[in-house]
Amino acid sequence: MNGEPMLHVGDHKISLDRKESGSTVDFISHAHTDHISAAKRSNSILASAQTIDLLGALGINASLSSGFLNAELMPAGHILGSRQLYVNDEDKGTSYLYSGDFQMQESAAAESIKTRNADVLIIDSTYPNPGINFGIKDDIISDVQSWVASALNTGCVLFSAYAMGKAQELIAVMNEIGIMPVVTKKISTISSVYRKNGISLRYVSAYDGSDYEDILNGDFVGISEQRDINELAYRLQTVHKKKFHTAVVTGFASFMHFDTDAQFNLSDHADFAQSVDYINEVSPKQILTYGHNAERFAANLSKFGYNATPFSQQSFMFAKQITAMGQKQKTKEYIY
């Protein structure tokens, strides 16, 4: 078969976060750009209504299909509208759960994850190594808030954060300590979709005129999607004659160094230990790892006694066979 593997259920061929030749249904777990290749080309999109709204904010006009067999979309805890896909193949007597990107810890700007049992789990492989540890999110948020409060005593604060998901969580984190941050036009556009969907966020867009100018008169917190945050800080310091403290918030801060004044590993993904917690809650008979790090993740899970293989059409057919035979998934508690 050409292209990446698909989930075959009855007469349907379901692509997972990418457009595959021959797919009859294209599932989009959430609106991050590396998951929406099907959005412009599909005639049968399966996604949450919030994901469709966020695609609109990105300038992509997409619409949902009218319906799809015995499928359930469950919150994934990643960003607004992020969903897992649960499908029950009644003819085969096998249930499937595809995670997409997911987060086990609570987010300030996304619905909490929900889990359920499934025979076959197709799981995201973004963070496949046991050595990666994001820590306790509440502690990281407290560190962010304390650092901001201290930095504002001597100047302004400028954060670099992904425009969708991370920026909105950071806005909520700033709102908790009474700060209304200034955000870029792109972040403001995306944040307005969050507001539309009931997520209370208070911020000022850099294009809002008088409110923006009033805030600039004092020391403020800014959030930008620009990766080279120091370059932006230098330009702002030149214009406003103020010191700017820089910081980045990303899960990559767990194992990468950034040339900023501070960095915080505030992630909207699950690390390895949290992924194992998720697997234990789902209690699958077979685990199929999915994504760029699928082979490494499967190998590491296998070391801890899990029945895990990278997702391919061969592994998918094998998963059908073992679930039909009623074999039990070997599980082992993972102690980090």
Structure characteristics:
336 residues, alpha/beta, Metallo-beta-lactamase, Chain A, Rossmann fold, 2 domains, 6-stranded mixed sheet, 6-stranded parallel sheet, 16 strands, 29% helix
Tell me briefly what this model is.
This protein is an alpha/beta fold and 336 residues long.
Read across the widest sheet, the strand sequence of neighbours is 5-6-7-8-15-16
Q: Could you say what the CATH architecture of the largest domain is?
A: 4-Layer Sandwich
CATH superfamily of the largest domain: Ribonuclease Z/Hydroxyacylglutathione hydrolase-like
SSE-based structural type: alpha/beta
**H/E series, N to C?**
EEEEHEEEEHEHEHEHEHEEHEHEH
CA-based shape: globular
Instruction: Give the CA-CA distance, first to last residue.
Output: 39 Å
> What does the average pLDDT come to?
89
Assign a percent range to the helix content: 25-40%
Extract low-pLDDT stretches: 324-336
Secondary structure tally, helices: 9
* Beta-strand residue percentage: 15-25%
Q: What's the number of domains?
A: 2
Largest sheet: 6 strands, mixed
Number of separate strands: 16
The gyration radius over C-alpha positions equals 21 Å
Q: From the 3D structure, determine the CATH topology of the largest domain.
A: Metallo-beta-lactamase, Chain A
CATH level 1 class label of the largest domain? Alpha Beta
